[in-house]
Amino acid sequence: METVGLDVQELIQKCAKHRVNFTMAELEEIVATNDKKRYSFNEKRTRIRANQGHSIEIDLTLSPVEPPEFLYHGTADRFYTSIMTEGIKKMNRQHVHMSKDKETAHKVGSRHGRPIILTILAKQMYSDGIEFFQSDNGVWLTESVDPKYISK
Question: Mean pLDDT for the chain?
Answer without folding.
Answer: 85
